[in-house]
Design brief:
Elements lengths: L3 E16 L6 E15 L2 E14 L5 E4 L1 H14 L1
């Protein structure tokens, strides 16, 4: 019997002050990286997918961003933060 599946991991990369596209408020946004890994016998082996997103702390809206945009936002947060 072989036991396999996937497991998700969520990493917080930065906290940025941005204007929310949904509510229009300048609020803190968390920049997160969501990685799904293939597991074999409950041991994570390799990443299957990687997604980046920002979440508004005021209204909770999430927006997907590309890896390039995430790196740009992370660098921007390091300079201003």
């Amino acid at each position: 019997m072989i036991i396999f599946g996937t497991k998700g991991y969520l990493y917080q990369l930065a906290i940025l002050t941005l204007v929310c596209g949904r509510c229009g408020n300048p609020a803190a946004h968390t920049l997160r990286k969501r990685v799904t890994k293939f597991t074999l016998f409950f041991v994570p082996l390799f990443p299957v997918s990687t997604k980046y997103l920002t979440q508004c702390t005021f209204c909770g809206a999430e927006q997907k961003v590309t890896g390039e945009q995430a790196e740009r936002l992370r660098a921007q947060g390091a300079v201003t933060g």
